[in-house]
Amino acid sequence: MTEHDDRCAVPATAAIRTDAPMFNRAAWLRILPFAAYLAFIVIGDVLQRLGVAPDALRWLYPAKIALVALLLALFWRQYKELSRFHLAPLHALTALATGVLVLVLWISLDAGWMVFGSPSGFDPRVDGRIDWLLVAIRIAGAALVVPVMEELFWRSFLMRWVDAPDFASVEPSQLSIKSFVITVVLFGVEHNLWLAGIVAGAAYSLLYMRHRNLWSPILAHAVTNGLLGVWVVRTGSWSYW
């Protein structure tokens, strides 16, 4: 398929059925992997409050990534914008550079007022020694699974759905300022580093709108997360995980 498949502009005269469901099947296919990811975060928080040992909670992340990856695999053929990887060389270079820039800003925008709460992060050490299997799973999940899951939800679905319930018909380059602002702010407050999250969300959204290709923000997001994982391990800054 071409970069413009499944992204034709919404006709100005298109009528919205009043009896139409809030979310159609295409929406649910993008919501469910994201919801599964959030569910594990809630489960981990509840178990922590109940006094479950941190060592046991470390394995929630591999379970979470496994479930999300399974859901993405099951639904993959329904994600038409991901049916094949195609990025113009200049777009790919721009996405790579954006991913690096977002990483630099992510680890810099950490003043007290820029952070929600006191994130405990993900500490892969067991008895003072790093569990490299956990590190590998964490980096692989953050770089290969999370970007696909989040970009399908935030950019492919929510950003377009704000403009039209039949979101798949919305052309990325025609997205409104309202959809941009709402999605970017929500993406930011999803993270403890809320300002860094807003900056990242804005960068990924602009890539999507300019390149009209979901693989562009996915690539940038993957670069940010992958390099962040390497930086966290090298510096021991576990709170950033």
TrEMBL record:
Record-annotated CAAX prenyl protease 2/Lysostaphin resistance protein A-like domain positions: 136-226
Residue ranges spanning the membrane: these are 27-47, 59-76, 88-109, 130-149, 180-207, 214-233
List this protein's GO terms for biological process. CAAX-box protein maturation; proteolysis
Q: Which UniProt keywords apply?
A: Hydrolase, Membrane, Protease, Transmembrane, Transmembrane helix
- Which InterPro entries does the UniProt entry name for this protein? Prenyl_protease-related, Rce1/LyrA-like_dom
What Gene Ontology molecular function terms does this protein carry?
A: endopeptidase activity
Q: NCBIfam families given for it?
A: pepcterm_CAAX
Name of this protein: CAAX prenyl protease-related protein
